[in-house]
């Protein structure tokens, strides 16, 4: 991680420019699924090697399915840092609804994308019609309050800086999907990771697409059991950490 820069490009950019005036671009990735390119951060919301494969591999398979593997549960709470396009949520809702799991999903997002932009992702082609329709038709309201999208899924997108998020909820799984540490070092500090790990239940699982020596050291110093898992396409490894 690059901790040399002490001011995030995104924070600096958004102090001066509202996100609704930014020219986001829809980009097609290697597996044919789309992502968004942030014009000022100059980073995609997902891997160029495949947005869908990255979401499925890092968050669904290495995070959620890993957590569920040895459990027989009916209730599940997930926190996502960096909700963005909602792709991780959409895949999770499809999966958990099919499994009849009662899902409470909280996404933290400081700079929500517009419905118009979300519709251009074509993610409606990647999930069931019901999942897409309930998501897109409730999106603006979900930014203001939690909404029960179907009998199994409650979604809230907290429109706030993740660093000031407070809740009494504890989560089973945390999807950590911030921009890279070179662009947003403030979301990869020990202070912020500790803030997020405090929201994880004992036995809960934290996953992210990246792995670095700094991140492993931070996790270990917080008492987490760190695992190097195989990475998504184009990355050798990713980080999974379990709260013990
Ligand atoms: C890599 S993208 C997330 C991709 C997203 N999970 C998806 O599936 O589209 C990082 C996200 O973090 C958001 N973000 C940046 N700084 C933030 C902050 N301080 N608090 C909350 N969200 C932030 C960005 O606006 C962006 O949506």
Q: How would you describe this structure to a colleague?
A:
- Helix content is 31%, strand content 27%.
- The chain has 244 residues and is of the alpha/beta class.
- The chain has a single domain (9-243), classed as Rossmann fold (3-Layer(aba) Sandwich).
- An eight-stranded mixed beta sheet has the order 6-7-5-4-8-9-11-10, sandwiched between helices. A three-stranded antiparallel beta sheet has the order 1-2-3, with no helix packed on it.
- The chain is globular and about 40 Å long.
- Residues 10, 45, 82-85, 87-88, 108-111, 161-163, 177-179, 184 line the site of S-adenosylmethionine (SAM).
Q: pLDDT under 50 segments (min length 5)? A: 1-6
Average pLDDT rating: 93
CATH architecture descriptor name: 3-Layer(aba) Sandwich
CATH class: Alpha Beta
Helix coverage percent of residues?
Answer: 25-40%
Give the topology, please.
Layout: H1 9-16, E1 25-28, E2 34-38, E3 43-44, H2 51-68, E4 75-81, H3 87-98, E5 102-109, H4 115-120, H5 129-142, E6 147-150, E7 153-159, E8 171-176, H6 190-197, E9 200-208, H7 213-221, E10 224-230, E11 237-243
Parallel strand pairs: 4-5, 4-8, 5-7, 8-9
Antiparallel strand pairs: 1-2, 2-3, 6-7, 9-11, 10-11
Helix pairs in contact: 2-3
This protein binds S-adenosylmethionine.
What are the main properties of this structure?
244 residues; alpha/beta; Rossmann fold; 8-stranded mixed beta sheet; disordered N terminus; binds S-adenosylmethionine
């Amino acid at each position: 991680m690059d901790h040399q820069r002490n001011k995030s490009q995104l924070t600096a950019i958004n102090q001066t420019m509202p996100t609704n005036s930014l020219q986001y671009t829809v980009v097609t990735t290697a597996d044919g699924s789309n992502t968004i390119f942030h014009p000022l951060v100059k980073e995609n919301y997902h891997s160029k090697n495949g947005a869908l494969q990255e979401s499925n591999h890092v968050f669904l398979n290495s995070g959620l399915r890993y957590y569920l593997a040895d459990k027989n549960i009916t209730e599940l709470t997930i926190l996502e840092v960096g909700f963005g396009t909602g792709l991780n949520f959409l895949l999770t809702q499809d999966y958990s609804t099919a499994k009849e799991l009662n899902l409470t999903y909280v996404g933290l997002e400081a700079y929500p994308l517009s419905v118009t932009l979300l519709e251009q992702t074509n993610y409606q082609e990647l999930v069931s019609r019901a999942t897409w329709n309930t998501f897109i038709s409730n999106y603006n309201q979900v930014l203001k309050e939690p909404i029960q999208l179907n009998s199994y899924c409650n979604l809230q997108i907290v429109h706030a800086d993740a660093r000031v998020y407070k809740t009494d909820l504890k989560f089973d799984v945390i999807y950590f999907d911030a921009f890279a540490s070179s662009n947003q070092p403030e979301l990869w500090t020990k202070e912020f990771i500790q803030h997020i790990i405090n929201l994880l239940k004992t036995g809960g699982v934290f996953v992210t697409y990246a792995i670095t020596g700094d991140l492993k050291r931070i996790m270990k110093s917080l008492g987490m059991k760190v695992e190097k898992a195989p990475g998504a396409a184009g990355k050798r490894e990713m980080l999974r950490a379990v709260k013990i």
